Amino acid sequence: MSAEATEHTALGRRRGLPRIDLRNIRRFSRTAVLGPASRGRLPDAIEHIAKVHRAHHPGADLDVLRQAYVLAESSHRGQMRKSGEPYITHPLAVTLILAELGAETTTLTASLLHDTVEDTEVTLDQVGEQFGEEVRYLVDGVTKLEKVDYGAAAEPETFRKMLVATGNDVRVMSIKLADRLHNMRTLGVMRPEKQARIAKVTRDVLIPLAERLGVQALKTELEDLVFAVLHPEEYEEARALVLAHAGRPDPLAGFADEVRAVLQEAGITAEVTVRPRHFVSVHRVRVKRGDLTGFDLGRLLVLVGEDADCYATLGELHTCFTPVISEFKDFVAVPKFNLYQSLHTAIAGPDGRIAEVLIRTHQMHRVAEAGVVALGNPYAPAGGDGGTDAPDGERADPTRPGWLSRLLDWQRATPDPDAFWSSLRDDLAQDREITVFRADGGTLGLPAGASCVDAAYAEHGEAAHACVGARVNGRLAGLGTVLHDGDTLQLLMARDAAASGPSPEWLDHARTPAARIAISRWLAAHPVVPEGPAANAPGRDRPTAPGPGGGAPREAGVVTDTAATTVRLAGCCTPVPPDAVTGFTVRGGAVTVHRRGCPVVARMRATGRVPVGVHWRDPDHGPAGGDYRVTVRAEAFSRPHLLADITEAIAAEGVAVISAAVEPPHEQRVRHTYTVQLPDADRLQNLIRAMRRVPGVYDVTRPGRPVAAHQP
C-alpha cells in the first residue's frame, strides 16, 4: 500500500502540480541509528527537516530542534517499530510532515518528543524543564491514556483529552494528524482486522478533524490510505484508471496553456498548473458522472497575487470561455468555516471540453493545503512566531468560536465514554457549516441541516427548554424548520420558563449533540413526556390543588381514585370535558391526566406503568373561572393573510392565544397549530367551528387525539 501511495504521488508530480512530498523517510533508518552528532553540530537525521523548516521560517532557532532530537533518539534507542525500523524514524517522519506544512519551531519540537512520555522513561516534568511549558502541554495533549487504567474507554477518553487540549492549543491536533498519517502509511505490517479498525477510526474521526482544521494535504492522503484498506476493490479501480491515463498526453495541460495565454494577454500575472485528483476524488467523480475522460481526472489551479486578481481572472475566463454557471462558488468573499478560500468555476472551450478551475492567491493556497498549520502559532503575541492578534487586542483564534467550541461544550455534558464516542462521530459526520443571523445582529455557526431546535440550544443552552417557536426570515416557523446559510432567525421564548420544556419530537429535529443531550437529559428528568406543539407552550401541565372532603383532588373538574396531592392536565393532549381521560402517577405523587387516545398513554402502558382512574366531576361544566388550555391544529391551503384571519376568528370567540406555530408550506398546504386558553370547556366546539369557517381552512383537529363524537 505504501508503494502504491508513492506511485500516486509520482503521478501527481508528472502532471505538473507541486505537492507536499513527505515520503522520503527511509533515509532516517540509517542516519537515526548513528546517534546524535557532536555537540553544536546538527545531527544528520534532522538536516533535511531543518532545511525544510528554514524554507518556511528563515530565522528559526534550530538548536532547540537539535536538543529535542538528542533526547528523543536517546530515549527511543533500542526500540523498534513493527516494520523493523528504529522507532526514532517515526517521530522524525511526523516532524518532517509538519515541517513541510510550514509548522513553527515549537510544534516541531513537540512532534519530535510526542512519544517520549508515552513509550519511554521521560516524564512530562523533564520535558517542561528542558523545553518549556508550551512544549510540555503539546506533548501531554497527544499522549495516550493507559488501557490499564481506562480499559475499553481508553481510546474515546484519549480523544476527549486531545480535543480538550486542542481547545486551548490547536497545534495538539496538528501533531496527532501527522502522527496518524505516518502510522497509516506503515499500516501494512498490521493484521488485517487491526488495519480495518484503525482505518475506521481515521475515517470517522481524524479525517473530519483534518477537514475542519483545513489541513487538506493531510486529509486527502489519509482518505486515500483509508480507501485502500476499507474498499480495496474500488481503490484498485480508481488507481487503474489513473494509471491508464498516466501514459497519455494530458488534455488538461493543453487547456492550461490556453488559460495561461488568455491571462497573459489580459496583463494578469498568474501561475496555471494542473491539479490531479486523488484516488478518492476520482472514485467520487466516477460514481457521479459514469465514464471519465482525462478532463475529469484533474482541475486547473490558477494562483495569483492579490484578492482582486482572483475576480479579474474569473472575469477573463468567463469572457473568453463559456462558463458553466451551476459550478460557480465564491469561497473568497464567504470563506468556509475551515479557513478555505478559493473561487470555483468550470469553463468550456470551443470544442465543448469542460475543465474545472480553482482560482486563489498564493497565501490562500498555503492555507488551503496546510490549514491552521500555515498560520504558524496563533497564540503567540503580535510580532511573534507566526502569531496574529485581533484588531481589538484579543488573541485571534482561527478555530473558535465555531465547531470546536460547540464540540467542547457538549462533551462536558457527556461523561459516558460510549455516548461521547458515538456523539463525536455523529458530530464530525456533519461536514459543512452554515451561518445564521440572529435578530439582535449576532451570528450563529451551525452544521448544515441544523434546525431551529439546534439554534435555540446553541444560543441559549439549557434555557432553550423554554423556546416555543421561531421566526425565520420574518415568518413564523416550526421549531423543526431546517435553517439555511444566511437565514435570519428570531427565537420566541416562553415568559414562564419553569412551565415549559421540550417535546420528544424535538429529538427528531435536533442535529447537534448539544441539543440532543440537553433534550434527552430534560426528558429523563420528567417522567411524563409531553408530545406535540402544545408542549412548547407555557402551562404544559397545569397543577390543581386537592379538593375538599378527602384525598381526591377535584379542582379543574377532575376526580381521581387515589389520594394524589396534585392533579395536572397534560399539555401533550390538553384534555377538556367531555374527553375520555386516564391518569398516571408521576414523581411526587401527582397525577397527570391524559386523553385516552394520547400517544403518551400507549407509551406509558408499554413501559408497564399502571393507569389511575380519573373522571370529570361534571361533564357539562368546567371549573369556576375556567383555565383550560387546548391545542388545535388547522389544516389549510396556503394563501396570504391566512394567519391573521385565523387568529382574528379565534379572538372573536373570546379565546386567548397562548402560542402559535406555523409549519413551512408543502404542496400549497400549510399547518397552523395554536395553544389557546378557554374561558370554559363549552367554548371549544364553537372555536373549532369558527376556525373551519375561515376561507382556505379545510380541517381543524386536536393533535394526538382520535376522532371523537363530540367534535363537529
Task: Offer a quick outline of the entry.
With 712 residues, the chain is α+β, with helices and mostly antiparallel strands.
Write up this protein:
By secondary structure, this protein is an alpha+beta fold. It has 27 helices and 22 strands. The strands form five sheets. Strands 1, 2, 3, 4, 5 and 6 form a six-stranded mixed beta sheet that branches. A five-stranded mixed beta sheet has the order 8-7-11-9-10, with helices on one face. Helix 6 packs across helix 9 and helix 15 crosses helix 17. The longest helix is centred in the first third of the chain and has 21 residues.
Q: Please state the average pLDDT score.
A: 79
Question: What integer value in Å does the Rg equal?
Answer: 32 Å
Structural class by SSE content: alpha+beta
Uncertain runs: 1-27, 386-401, 528-555, 619-625, 705-712
Shape: globular
DSSP strand tally? 22
Secondary structure layout plus pairing:
Elements: H1 2-14, H2 27-32, H3 47-56, H4 63-76, H5 89-101, H6 105-112, H7 116-119, H8 124-131, H9 133-142, H10 147-150, H11 154-168, H12 171-185, H13 192-212, H14 216-230, H15 232-246, H16 251-265, E1 271-276, H17 279-289, E2 298-304, H18 307-320, E3 322-323, E4 329-330, E5 343-348, E6 354-361, H19 362-370, H20 403-412, H21 417-428, E7 433-438, E8 443-447, H22 452-460, E9 467-472, E10 475-477, E11 488-493, H23 505-509, H24 513-525, E12 542-544, E13 558-560, E14 567-569, E15 581-585, E16 591-595, H25 599-606, E17 611-612, E18 614-616, E19 628-637, H26 642-652, E20 656-662, E21 669-678, H27 683-692, E22 697-701
Parallel strand pairs: 2-6, 7-11, 14-16
Antiparallel strand pairs: 1-2, 3-5, 4-5, 5-6, 7-8, 9-10, 9-11, 12-14, 13-18, 15-16, 15-17, 19-21, 19-22, 20-21
